[in-house]
Specification:
Blueprint: H1 8-20, H2 26-45, E1 49-54, H3 58-72, E2 76-81, H4 88-99, E3 104-105, E4 114-118, H5 130-142, E5 146-149, E6 172-175, E7 189-192, H6 198-202, E8 217-219
Parallel strand pairs: 1-2, 1-4, 2-3, 4-5, 5-6, 6-7
Antiparallel strand pairs: 7-8
Length: 226
């Protein structure tokens, strides 16, 4: 199946249309993303422990949802926050994990299991710095397996290259459509159906085939730019 890529500008417009024209809220998509990320994590790694690195925005929120689902599946969870100042919707997901009494910290405490990278999404620019940069470096030094949500932290969306500080080519669950410059630059790329109707994509100039008839996620063997 040929799957088109989407530019960052098109994806921003898709997010706007979903909320303003179709009444599908971003928290709904966040829940779908986190649930599928947890499922894929189990499929690929079957971990006993997962350290979930969380950014302040909706990517981090997806990671928090994944943490909840992984907890439900019997995985020991450690949530590591890049900042205590999460946006409103991710903060609600964090409150759920606190109510479950899951470990939440600001640094990695374990050197086993896997890392779930939910630090930055498709809006990331430049080399990761500050707390996020420190967490990426700590994660790379741990040599633990990594799975990324939507876009690996440290992936340059403009060039398709990885910055010196990055999670280098981890399995990645990208959301809705693969982003431009992922083609050939992320070797283990999976696509998730987070509930975006094909009519929304049509409004940004993309006419899609039926992609998720059999499953809500699948591995992209080939990405073709339309």
């Amino acid at each position: 199946m040929d799957v088109p890529s989407i530019t960052v500008d098109q994806m921003r417009e898709v997010d706007r249309l979903m909320v303003e024209e179709f009444g599908i809220a971003l928290p709904q998509m966040m829940e779908n993303a986190g649930r599928i990320l947890a499922e894929l994590t189990i499929e690929l790694f079957a971990p006993n422990r997962a350290t979930v690195l969380v950014g302040k925005g909706y990517n981090g929120g997806g990671g928090l949802v994944a943490a909840r689902y992984l907890h439900n599946k019997g995985v020991d969870i450690e949530v590591v926050l890049s900042t205590p100042d999460l946006q409103e919707v991710p903060m609600r997901r964090l409150s759920t994990l606190r109510a479950l009494d899951l470990p939440i910290s600001n640094s990695m405490q374990h050197d086993d299991g896997i890392i779930v990278d939910a630090l930055l999404g498709y809006n990331q620019l430049g080399v990761p710095t500050g707390r996020i940069g420190n967490l990426v470096e700590a994660g790379e030094e741990s040599r633990l397996p990594v799975i990324s949500l939507d876009v690996p932290t440290g992936f340059d969306m403009e060039t398709g290259n990885y910055h010196d500080i990055s999670f280098n080519d981890p399995p990645t669950l990208t959301l809705g459509l693969p982003k431009a410059n992922m083609n050939g630059n992320i070797k283990d790329l999976w696509l998730a159906d987070i509930g975006i109707p094909k009519e929304v994509y049509k409004m940004v100039g993309l006419d899609l085939p039926v992609m998720f008839r059999e499953s809500d996620h699948f591995k992209l063997e080939r990405v073709t730019l339309w």
